[in-house]
């Protein structure tokens, strides 16, 4: 039976991904050599990366919407691999191949390889990617889209107010990693499954807030996170996606953001070791670079 995927994936260099988005279409060398572009299903991305991209710097993953492809998508057996190849295909394993260039409109996300979960992406999640065309926050990798930024600014140059929409989806590795801000932030739950805000307070205590759209079930539709509080967010286990928003006044700017390194937070909040290990930052970077359009 031919597989049906709501999302297919392609590994390439960041430069190639940026070039495709700028030019309007993506072409791989294999298109001229073999007549098609090699793609992967969700569970095939990491084995493919291990086999063909080990040691290759700056590899990213294109998330492609099959419904937006203008060239045929065909599921076929892979080419025979050398006996010593590090990737072993299961008997009958099929891989998606695109027989033509991939239009930039079909590329709905560009994600880091570390964010790949191997889980299939749902139809609902893909519909939201098509709708909002999210970007990825540096350091966190969170899917977001700024929706409002005041023209008025403070003396520092920061906007008076900002608002954004975000998407948590484990299948796309989108969570909010521990960080703190210099201003209060208001979270809003819009649609989808419940998610949890994990808060590490200045007095050494910790708390959790269950966010969601059902207040009668004990879910908060709004939550104010005070300035200076370490915060992170992620879906409850088993959830598909959560669509949420964040509003700030004064508004968000990269200068108000500080990421939370795992080793520093663990030493101060030992009771939260497990969630810090999952949602803390390990890159060594703590300051967010300038964002597109800012």
Ordered list of secondary-structure elements with their pairings:
Layout: E1 8-13, H1 14-23, E2 25-26, H2 29-33, E3 37-38, H3 45-52, E4 59-64, E5 73-76, E6 95-98, E7 102-103, E8 107-112, H4 123-132, E9 135-136, E10 143-149, E11 162-168, E12 176-181, E13 185-192, E14 195-200, E15 206-211, E16 222-225, E17 230-235, E18 242-248, E19 257-259, H5 262-268, H6 273-279
Question: Can you characterise this structure?
Answer:
- With 294 residues, the protein is an alpha+beta fold.
- It has 2 domains: 8-121, Protein of unknown function DUF952 (ADP-ribosylation fold, Alpha-Beta Barrel); 137-279, Sandwich (Jelly Rolls).
- Helices cover 16% and strands 32% of the residues.
- It has 6 helices and 19 strands.
- The strands form 5 sheets. The protein has a 6-stranded antiparallel sheet with strand order 9-10-11-18-13-16, with no helix packed on it.
- It is globular and about 60 Å long.
- The model has no long low-confidence stretch (mean pLDDT 94).
Salient structural properties:
294 residues, alpha+beta, ADP-ribosylation fold, Jelly Rolls, 2 domains, 6-stranded antiparallel sheet, 5-stranded antiparallel sheet, 32% strand
Poorly predicted residue ranges: none
Number of strands: 19
Protein structure class = alpha+beta
CATH first level of the largest domain: Mainly Beta
Describe the sheet with the most strands: 6 strands, antiparallel
User: What is the alpha-carbon Rg in Å?
Assistant: 21 Å
Share of residues in helices = 10-25%
């Amino acid at each position: 039976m031919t597989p049906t995927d709501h999302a297919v994936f392609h590994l390439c260099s960041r430069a190639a991904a940026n070039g495709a988005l700028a030019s309007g279409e993506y072409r791989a060398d294999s298109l001229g050599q073999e007549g098609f572009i090699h793609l992967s299903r969700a569970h095939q991305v990491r084995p493919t990366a291990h086999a063909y991209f080990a040691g290759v710097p700056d590899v990213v993953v294109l998330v492609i919407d099959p419904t937006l492809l203008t060239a045929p998508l065909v599921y076929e057996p892979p080419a025979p691999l050398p006996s010593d190849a590090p990737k072993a295909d299961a008997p009958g394993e099929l891989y998606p191949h695109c027989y033509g260039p991939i239009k930039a409109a079909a590329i709905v996300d560009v994600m880091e390889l570390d964010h790949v979960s191997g889980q299939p992406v749902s139809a609902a999640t893909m519909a939201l990617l098509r709708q909002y065309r999210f970007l990825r926050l540096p350091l966190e990798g969170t899917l977001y889209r700024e929706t409002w930024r005041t023209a008025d600014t403070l003396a520092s140059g920061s906007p008076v107010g900002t608002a954004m929409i975000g998407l948590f989806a484990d299948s796309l590795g989108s969570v909010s990693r521990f960080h703190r801000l210099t201003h209060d932030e208001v979270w809003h739950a819009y649609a989808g499954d419940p998610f949890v805000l994990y808060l590490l307070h200045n007095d050494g205590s910790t708390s959790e807030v269950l966010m969601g759209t059902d207040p009668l079930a004990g879910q908060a539709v709004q939550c104010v996170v005070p300035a200076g509080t370490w915060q992170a967010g992620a879906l409850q286990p088993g959830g598909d996606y959560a669509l949420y928003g964040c509003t700030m006044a004064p508004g968000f700017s990269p200068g108000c953001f500080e990421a939370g390194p795992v080793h520093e937070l663990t030493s101060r909040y030992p009771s939260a070791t497990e969630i810090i290990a999952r949602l803390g930052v390990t890159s060594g970077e703590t300051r967010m670079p300038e964002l597109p359009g800012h």
